[in-house]
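Ticket opened by: R.M.
Priority: normal
Category: complex prediction / small molecule

The reporter submitted a protein together with S-adenosylmethionine and asked that the result be attached to this ticket for the collaborator who will pick it up next week. Submitted input follows.
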Amino acid sequence: MGRNRPYKGRDHFARRAREEGYEARSVYKLEEIQRRFGLLRQNQRVVDLGCYPGSWSRYAMKCIGPRGRIVGVDLQEPSLAGGTWIVRSVYDVTPEELLKALGGPADVVLSDMAPLTTGDRFGDHIAQLELARRALELARVVLVPGGALVAKVFEGGEAGDFQAEVKTSFARVKRVRPPAVRKQSREWFVVARGFRA
Ligand SMILES: C[S@@+](CC[C@H](N)C(=O)[O-])C[C@H]1O[C@@H](n2cnc3c(N)ncnc32)[C@H](O)[C@@H]1O
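Result attached by the on-call engineer:
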């Protein structure tokens, strides 16, 4: 019991997250993406899809500073001050709502969304890809030209098709598996830059 719970793990990243005041070890996935690509900058507007418990948002807020704006969407609300949290399924959120809450178009859309996994590898892969596709759909409306999308993907037969879909809207698309991803996990991230509106 508890061995796989993110915060109870004995691994280096879980310990570091506790010490550095982050809600989840997954923050180090975003930190690695930021170290490599420098997507998040001062004063930007950011959307964080699947923002609970809040470590990506907390990290993003540090990068964008007090004049940046962040809007997070999740089924649960993070207990974190400084952002606007929409507590609802991403399928029930409209791009117009995001734009209104941000006060303008987004510079970066982040998606670390994952469904509750069932153990059915193919079913989990498809459910997760639907979330990633929803992130792409919203990003296509809310991003500024030149903006960026980071989206989690569970590896599987249709992941390549999703990456190809992303390529139709962005100039540069990379597949990244940060060191903080657990060895047994099939997840990786699409990092897409240079949105073509
Ligand atoms: C891995 S967690 C995100 C962790 C977060 N990035 C952090 O660092 O704190 C995945 C999140 O996706 C959310 N999620 C799953 N399905 C969703 C949906 N349909 N709409 C919004 N969020 C969803 C879950 O509620 C969960 O909080």
